[in-house]
Amino acid sequence: MRWSMLVADGGVSWRTGCLFDPITLGISATTLMTAGTALSAGSTIIGGFSQAAAAENQAELIQKGAEFTAKQQEAAAAESRAVGQRQAFEKQRLTRLALSSLRARAYASGDPASQDAIALGADIAGRGEYQTLADLYSGENRARGLEDEAMATRASAGAKASGLRSFATGTRFGSLF
């Protein structure tokens, strides 16, 4: 090993070998700067890919959550139809009961074919039919509204997920360049 003595500013300094000559020091500094740049670029790429993966995971979670919500809305729609049908069936039962009661009273009075009994029977039947159809319509209307909400939930989640996936793709490409 070679030792050299440097005299600088009145002091003496001892250094070894040729590691401290200006050319070697310049190459070492350039090498360190290049390595630092490579590390910085690598961390930018890794960070971009991590951010993109997080965006894709978020997109998947949004779609899964929306699908769950949409299925609940569709189940509520089916239940709404069923409730409307049950109410309609109940109205039909009450109408038949009212008509039966009217017939029994008309027969008990001795004139089952009276104009009043016939008119009242027609009115009861008409109102019963109207209420039955109104209950069916109400249940169907609520069901369609819920199905529309389910479709909107899916569409909204799809749009958000698509945006996040586009962001992920852009982030990946951006981190590479």
What do these coordinates show?
The structure is a single chain. This protein is about 85% helix and about 5% strand. It has about 180 residues and is mainly alpha-helical. The chain has a two-stranded antiparallel ribbon. A hairpin with a 2-residue loop joins strand 1 and strand 2. The longest helix is centred in the middle third of the chain and has 88 residues, at about 20-110.
Task: State the gist of this model.
The protein has helices spanning 22-109, 115-176, and strands at residues 3-8, 11-16.
Features:
177 residues; mainly alpha; two-stranded antiparallel ribbon; 2 helices; rod-shaped; disordered N terminus
Write the layout of secondary structure elements.
Layout: E1 3-8, E2 11-16, H1 22-109, H2 115-176
Antiparallel strand pairs: 1-2
**Radius of gyration, whole Å:** 42 Å
- How many DSSP helices? 2
Form type: rod-shaped
Q: Within the largest sheet, what's the order of strands?
A: 1-2
Relative strand content: 5-15%
